[in-house]
């Protein structure tokens, strides 16, 4: 009988890592839960759960058809449900994707590097219908150019405002999607509110949440670290394909705007893959040079660093009045306190 066991010993994790290498997968040490099935003392199947994302699910080729993937997935999905998740994703390799078709998962997108599948509700289809409904309420000229932006805004800066202003000037309408996943020191509800306040003067800009379908644990796993640029293309391909094939289509976006990225190798790879993917679907990518202050790009990381150092004097040169007002208010106290206790780049 094949029985999944939780991997709790640090000594077992290197064995999981070695097993995954044959599938071109890398073990994510930040997983919430990892399980394995062994035969004669050797790992023959494994899988991990991170939030509501099942990842690194793999079964020895010699045992395909024995139901091992189903046992791994069932175990992890039950763990996800106990944690309160009503929707699960599987991030895997293209050649492994078919294993999950019979387990109630829907393939959202598949590229030559990776595949993303979903089970549960609300679903990606529900999200796309919401986008289509919003787009249907916005009047658009016959030949009007519709633009798209995806931003985290941790928090909203003058650099973000500069990019939004440039996009708004070139398009009849712009849809700005704010990353919804809460992995930043500024919570989503705060980031979303600051973006809405900071862009309200641009009457042709609509601010929307991304759901879990852009720059999230599902679409761009965090185990593609700054040093793992060789792996980043896989995650970027999923995120870019979801946007190009589905989100942009729902919103009728014809041009996506991004800021140039001189510092982050992973973001530079993402922009490259995004350009290739968008172009293959008839969508332009327009990179806009970053707003600079004293020779440095105005970025959210500069704002967070200033807050860590209690340097409020520099903030007016980095953030719009709406963000500054929030940062100076009591509502920001807990966020700033948390920020000063961490060195995380997020």
What does this protein structure show overall?
It is a single chain. With 346 residues, the protein is α/β, with parallel strands linked by helices. It folds into two domains: 5-121, Aminopeptidase; 125-340, 3-Layer(aba) Sandwich (Rossmann fold). Helices cover 36% and strands 21% of the residues. The chain has ten helices and 14 strands. The protein has helices at residues 13-21, 68-82, 124-136, 158-170, 188-199, 229-251, 265-280, 300-308, 321-327, 333-340; strands spanning 5-6, 33-39, 42-50, 53-59, 87-92, 106-110, 115-120, 146-151, 173-178, 205-209, 255-259, 284-288, 292-293, 296-297. A seven-stranded mixed beta sheet has the order 1-2-3-4-5-7-6, with helices on both faces. A five-stranded parallel beta sheet has the order 10-9-8-11-12, sandwiched between helices. The longest helix has 23 residues, at 229-251. The chain is globular.
The termini sit apart by 44 Å
How many strands, which pairing sense, and closed or not: the largest β-sheet?
Answer: 7 strands, mixed
Helicity, as a percent range: 25-40%
Unreliable spans: 223-227
The rounded Rg comes to 21 Å
| Strand tally | 14
Helix segment tally: 10
Apparent shape: globular
Summed up, the domain count is: 2
Strand content: 15-25%
Strand order of the largest sheet: 1-2-3-4-5-7-6
Instruction: List SSEs in N-to-C order.
Output: EHEEEHEEEHEHEHEHEHEEEHHH
- Specify the CATH class of the largest domain: Alpha Beta
Determine the CATH topology of the largest domain.
Rossmann fold
Output the CATH homologous superfamily of the largest domain. Answer: HUPs
Based on secondary structure, the structural category is: alpha/beta
Mean pLDDT: 90
């Amino acid at each position: 009988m094949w029985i999944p066991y939780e991997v709790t010993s640090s000594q077992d994790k290197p064995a999981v890592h070695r097993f995954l290498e044959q599938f071109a997968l890398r073990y994510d040490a930040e997983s919430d839960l990892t399980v394995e099935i062994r035969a004669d003392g050797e790992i023959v199947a494994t899988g991990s759960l991170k939030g509501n994302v099942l990842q690194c699910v793999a079964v020895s080729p010699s045992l395909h058809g024995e139901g091992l993937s189903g046992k791994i997935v069932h175990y992890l999905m039950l763990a996800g449900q106990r944690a309160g998740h009503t929707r699960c994703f599987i991030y895997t390799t293209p050649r492994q994707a078919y294993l999950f078709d019979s387990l109630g998962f829907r393939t959202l997108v598949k590229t030559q590097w990776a595949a993303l599948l979903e089970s549960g509700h609300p679903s990606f289809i529900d999200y796309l219908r919401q986008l289509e409904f919003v787009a249907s309420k916005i009047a658009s000229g016959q030949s009007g150019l519709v633009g798209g932006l995806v931003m985290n805004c941790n928090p909203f800066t003058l650099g973000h405002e500069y990019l939004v202003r440039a996009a708004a000037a070139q398009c009849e309408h712009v849809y700005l999607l704010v990353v919804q996943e809460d992995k930043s020191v500024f919570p989503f509800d705060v980031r979303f509110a600051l973006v809405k306040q900071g862009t309200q003067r641009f009457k042709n800009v609509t601010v929307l949440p991304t759901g879990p379908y852009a720059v999230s644990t599902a679409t761009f796993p965090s185990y593609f670290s700054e040093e793992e640029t060789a792996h980043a293309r896989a995650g970027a391909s999923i995120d870019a394909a979801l946007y190009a094939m589905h989100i942009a289509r729902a919103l009728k976006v014809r041009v996506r705007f991004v800021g140039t990225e001189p510092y982050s190798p992973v973001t530079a790879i993402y922009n490259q893959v995004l350009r290739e993917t968008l172009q293959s679907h008839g969508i332009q990518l327009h990179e806009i040079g970053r707003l600079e202050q004293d020779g440095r790009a105005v970025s959210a990381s500069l704002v967070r660093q200033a807050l860590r150092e209690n340097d409020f004097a520099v903030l007016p040169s980095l953030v719009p009045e709406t963000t500054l007002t929030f940062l100076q208010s009591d509502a920001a106290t807990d966020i700033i306190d948390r920020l000063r206790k961490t060195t995380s780049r997020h």
